[in-house]
Write a structure and sequence with these properties.
Elements: H1 2-17, H2 38-46, E1 51-55, H3 62-70, E2 74-78, E3 92-94, H4 110-127, H5 144-153, H6 160-174, H7 179-185
Parallel strand pairs: 1-2, 2-3
């Protein structure tokens, strides 16, 4: 799934640039199904994971996320799929398609929502003096090509923020600095 993989790449690149390592687990749809599974949660917990972020999934994953809570994992869901009335057990559910969301950003794909999270987190880190000469603030615009790719591949409306993501992301993509996307384009 391009949206989920792009979201994972975006968040992983940001966390690395901000000085934190992340383990990325992309479920195999044939053996694990779509989204988080109890077995994957247990495996990640066994590897020392303390914070579980689900990207492009999780808003309907009540049982696996209840299992994560039982194991003591803090969980943040970043999704864009329609949410039910009752949300899964998590510390935060970031989703413009929650029934109580009034943002008007329900047209974003998961990578678009992830970019909003990254930008907000970056702003907080900057305000708290996290960045310095040894750890410079990352240029978030360089990752817009991932958001543009996910936006187009998820076939979400090209309006509002999506239009800006794609317009600017295509400019970044044209510079061919991401070797993987350059190879894919070739």
């Amino acid at each position: 799934d391009v949206d989920g993989v792009s979201s994972a790449a975006l968040l992983s690149l940001f966390l690395d640039a901000a000085g934190s390592a992340a383990t990325v687990h992309i479920p195999d749809r044939l053996t694990e199904g779509y989204g988080p599974s109890a077995s994957a949660v247990s495996q990640l917990h066994g590897q020392g994971t303390e914070l579980l972020l689900t990207l492009d999934c999780g808003v309907l994953a009540h049982d696996p996320l209840a299992h994560a809570a039982e194991l003591g994992l803090a969980t943040v869901i970043v999704d864009h799929h329609q949410a039910g009335e009752i949300l899964p057990r998590a510390h935060a559910v970031i989703n413009p398609n929650r029934q109580d969301d009034l943002s008007g950003f329900g047209y974003l794909c998961a990578a678009g929502v992830t970019m909003v999270l990254v930008a907000a987190t970056n702003r907080i880190l900057r305000a708290r003096g996290w960045y310095n000469d040894a750890r410079p603030e990352p240029n978030l615009l360089r990752w817009l090509e991932l958001v543009a790719l996910a936006t187009v591949c998820d076939v979400v409306p090209l309006k509002g923020l999506n239009r800006a993501y794609v317009t600017q992301g295509l400019k970044v993509m044209a510079r061919r600095e991401n070797l993987g996307l350059a190879a894919l384009a070739d």
